[in-house]
Each structure stands twice: as structure tokens, then as C-alpha cells.
Design a protein that fits this description.
It is a single chain. Helix 1 runs antiparallel to helix 2 and helix 3 crosses helix 4. The protein has seven helices and eight strands, in the order E-H-E-E-H-E-E-H-H-E-E-H-H-H-E. By secondary structure, the chain is of the alpha+beta class.
């Protein structure tokens, strides 16, 4: 599997199947509180070799399943991913010209690649957290959309996301 941007479009996963899997994971996590222990998963069919996953990975799966159970798409992106100005604007729920203004003011760090601006995903999320804290009326309208880095995705995201150091 190629590292980088991975997404599941809305409706690709059956919501009832995702809800069943989510209940199973939540029940397991609730009854097994050791946050340092890996989680062993035995398959119903196939090999006798169990799948062993770190607990934080299983917790992330639970968050992804919750979004899928609600009919949303999910996207997993490395924190060191580089995004275009359009993708960053979509993440913040602002126009691209507004985002460019934020970049030029120095509110969000960016790099130029030729004549294009590229922004680290982590820098966009840091700006969003800072903006949500400073906003007098609480978090912006896009907070729930990007919580846990999952959201409905667009084809523009696929074209515009590049992983740092990728060839």
C-alpha cells in the first residue's frame, strides 16, 4: 500500500457494518483500559496468526468507523503532508483568496514551489486550533468537520495532496 493520502468516500462503507464494528471496538476498549498494551485481533477465518495493533491505532480506527457509520467519508493524512492552497482553504472553510491573505500576513507558514504556495497539513491544523481558541463565539463552523483529521473528501484533495519527501 502506498504511503500518503488515503481516503474512503462517503457511502463506500456500509453504515450498519461500520456501526457494528465500532460497537465492538468501543466495548473492547472500555473493558481493557491498559493504554500501553497492544491489541491482538484474531480473525474469524484464515490464518492462526493474530493481528497485533497499537492501542492508539485501534482508537483511530474507532474514530474513523464513527464517521463512516454517520455516512461521512474519512481521510487519513500524514501530519507532514503538504497541501495546496485550495485544500487548505477547504480545510478551514474559507475562500482561497482569504487563505492566501493569511499566508501573506504570516499567520500560516508556507513554502513556494515555483509560483505555487504549499502548506504543511500540520501548520493548517495548528492555525485552526489557534483560531478556534481565540474566536469569541467558540470554535469555527468547520471544527466538527475536521476533528480527528477526518472529513468528507473531494477529488481536488486527491490531486493536491503530496507527502513530504515523496518522489
Amino acid at each position: 500500500m502506498k504511503a500518503g493520502n488515503t481516503k474512503i468516500a462517503p457511502g463506500t462503507v456500509d453504515a450498519q457494518s461500520a456501526e457494528r464494528a465500532l460497537r465492538g471496538i468501543r466495548d473492547y476498549l472500555a473493558h481493557n483500559k491498559d493504554t500501553t498494551a497492544d491489541i491482538t485481533i484474531l480473525g474469524e477465518v484464515g490464518s492462526d496468526d493474530p493481528l497485533v495493533l497499537p492501542r492508539p491505532t485501534v482508537e483511530m480506527f474507532a474514530a474513523m468507523l464513527a464517521a463512516l457509520a454517520n455516512g461521512q467519508g474519512v481521510q487519513v493524512m500524514p501530519v507532514n503532508a503538504i497541501v495546496s492552497t485550495q485544500v487548505a482553504a477547504d480545510m478551514l472553510n474559507v475562500s482561497r483568496p482569504h487563505l492566501v491573505g493569511l499566508l501573506e500576513k504570516g499567520d500560516i507558514p508556507f513554502e513556494r514551489v515555483g509560483r505555487h504556495r504549499r502548506i504543511k497539513f500540520n501548520d493548517v491544523m495548528e492555525y485552526k486550533r489557534r483560531d478556534d481558541r481565540e474566536r469569541p463565539n467558540g470554535p469555527s463552523r468547520s471544527s466538527t468537520r475536521w476533528r480527528l483529521h477526518s472529513a468528507a473528501t473531494t477529488s481536488a484533495t486527491t490531486r493536491s495532496v503530496r507527502s513530504c519527501g515523496a518522489a
